[in-house]
Amino acid sequence: MKLFIDTANIEEIKTVSTWGIIEGVTTNPSLIAKEGRKLVDVIKEITSLIHGPISAEVKEGLSEDMLEEAFTYARMHPNITIKVPMTLEGIKATSRLSALNIKTNVTLVFSVPQAMMAAKAGATFVSPFMGRLDDDLKDPEAGYRLLEDIRVAFDNYGIETQIIAASIRHPLHVEQAALAGSDIATIPFRVFQEMVVHPLTTKGLEIFRNAQK
Ligand code: E4P
User: Fold this and answer.
1) CA 125 to centroid of ligand 1, rounded, Å
2) 84: how many CB neighbours lie within 10 A of its CB?
3) Residue 213 appears among annotated catalytic residues
4) Tens digit of each residue's pLDDT (9 = 90 or more) over 73-129
5) Which CATH class is domain 2-211?
6) Which one from 34, 38, 83, 213 is the annotated catalytic residue?
């Protein structure tokens, strides 16, 4: 499973770029707004730090308007992936972008039918939102089941669209994404910090430190 970082914060991206495990970046309007900078400036800086797919989300609207914005971003760098909301206009835009070989990431996906439509439109990636689905259904495995079901549906038909497990809230979501067979997990910086630790690892390090005194 590939690991992307889910952030628009340049300092976080600089930090994780030194780890040698990050293969892409996803952003969204909320993450961009948090940085207080123009999307194009943030995305341009990210392209110099991470050498993999970098998702830039277009404003939801008519397909023609989304396409105009998409072309602006796509021209910036070959790694830029156009993040498109899961709407009928978004599906139309995705079909046009995939016909032009522009990478797309259909986002705000919460069901298998949505994922199938996005794949049919030629989406490079689909982003099912685990955390928000868990929250909405008050079920800590709702997102897990959605990932499993999309994986089965895609494998049934040899669909090459890649699944990006998104809206990840904790290391268990990363585990669920891996067990479900997600191609990618896009993970917030805070969750990466949580993933690396385990109480027994900490305890074992203490034992080894004491032994080396
Ligand atoms: C990534 O592509 C998504 O936009 C992101 O994971 C959403 O996370 P959130 O549900 O915490 O906003």
Assistant:
1) 14
2) 29
3) no
4) 999 999 999 999 999 999 999 999 999 999 999 999 999 999 999 999 999 999 999
5) alpha beta
6) 83
